[in-house]
């Protein structure tokens, strides 16, 4: 919207007067305010078992309800939050809110939906993720098995002893882990030996042209083989059409999420979506 109108989304004042750095500082202070004003919100995208059609979980995706700009997608502000370190505080709110919501849905009888939470590598380096998750679980009473932390390949390639200890402790608590955007980062898969994860998430860039591009299909096949050999669950992100879904099922992919079913929804709409879905499957 802002791009189309020729104005940069975050030029809240004349950018020609300012350096990029000033702009970032400005945005950062806006985000700090936004955290205090509860302007951030989580939307939830349903995840499906492709064979049974059942909803198995949700991915929590943060949005900024900006008073003037409207709903701002995370791609516009997460990088700034990461550069400024504000991602730690924002990530704390995200983890607490996602756990609270997961517990609420479980209490409402929506089922044992696993809540996927994206964790920035910066948060792992600068924040105390172990302490954070522990206190969120205690505060909400959510079972650790219902949380899946989505990690990036770049984080796991750091080969840090500190990180290994944190992840091992969190696993011992019963948390699940997945690797987000799998296949985009590195061809070096050695980290899969050192870090136990439950699930790989095939990046949507391989799914988008799956039925038209033989290379993308070859990559998806290879990823499915890796997951099968390592006995990991696998979910495809960004499934937008029936043809891709059919192809993915043929190739042996077991789980998926994407606009074919639903974009990420506000909590109340997600809840309605799940209830409608369950009702229509039961009848
Ligand atoms: P991601 O974790 O890989 O999330 C998937 C993105 O793909 C989401 O974009 C989702 O809305 C979008 N998506 C889902 N299905 C489809 C589809 O069928 N077609 C297309 N074209 N897109 C689809 P979103 O919400 O804009 O998030 C973008 C990225 O921002 C995320 O990528 C993640 O890296 C980051 N992010 C989002 N929420 C959080 C958060 O709470 N914490 C952190 N640290 N990062 C977040
Ligand atoms: Mg994700
Ligand atoms: Mg992803
Ligand atoms: Mg991504």
UniProtKB/TrEMBL annotation:
It comes from the Bacteria. Keywords: Membrane, Transmembrane, Transmembrane helix. GO terms for molecular function: cyclic-guanylate-specific phosphodiesterase activity. Residues 24-278 form the EAL domain. GO terms for biological process: cellular response to nitric oxide. The keyword rRNA-binding does not apply. The keyword Zinc does not apply. This is EAL domain-containing protein. It comes from Chitinibacter bivalviorum.
């Amino acid at each position: 919207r802002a791009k189309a109108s020729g104005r940069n989304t975050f030029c809240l004042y004349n950018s020609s007067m300012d350096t990029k750095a000033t702009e970032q500082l400005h945005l950062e202070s806006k985000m700090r305010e936004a955290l205090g004003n509860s302007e951030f919100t989580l939307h939830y995208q349903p995840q499906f078992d492709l064979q049974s059609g059942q909803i198995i979980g949700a991915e929590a995706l943060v949005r900024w309800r900006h008073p003037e700009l409207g709903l701002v997608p995370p791609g516009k502000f997460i990088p700034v939050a990461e550069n400024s370190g504000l991602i730690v505080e924002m990530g704390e709110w995200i983890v607490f809110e996602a756990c609270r919501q997961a517990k609420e849905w479980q209490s409402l009888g929506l089922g044992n939906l696993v809540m996927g939470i994206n964790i920035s590598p910066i948060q792992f380096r600068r924040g105390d993720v172990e302490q954070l998750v522990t206190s969120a679980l205690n505060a909400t009473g959510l079972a650790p098995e219902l949380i899946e932390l989505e990690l990036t390949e770049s984080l796991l390639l750091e080969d840090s002893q500190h990180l290994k200890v944190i992840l091992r402790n969190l696993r011992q608590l019963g948390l699940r882990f997945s690797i987000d955007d799998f296949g985009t980062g590195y061809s070096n898969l050695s980290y899969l030996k050192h870090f136990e994860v439950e699930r790989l998430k095939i990046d949507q860039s391989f799914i988008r042209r799956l039925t038209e591009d033989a290379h993308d299909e070859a990559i998806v096949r290879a990823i499915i083989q890796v997951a099968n050999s390592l006995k990991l669950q696998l979910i495809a992100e960004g499934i937008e059409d029936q043809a891709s879904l059919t192809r993915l099922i043929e190739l042996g992919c077991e789980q998926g999420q994407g606009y074919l079913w639903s974009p990420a929804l506000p909590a109340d709409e997600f809840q309605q979506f799940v209830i409608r879905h369950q009702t229509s499957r039961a009848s």
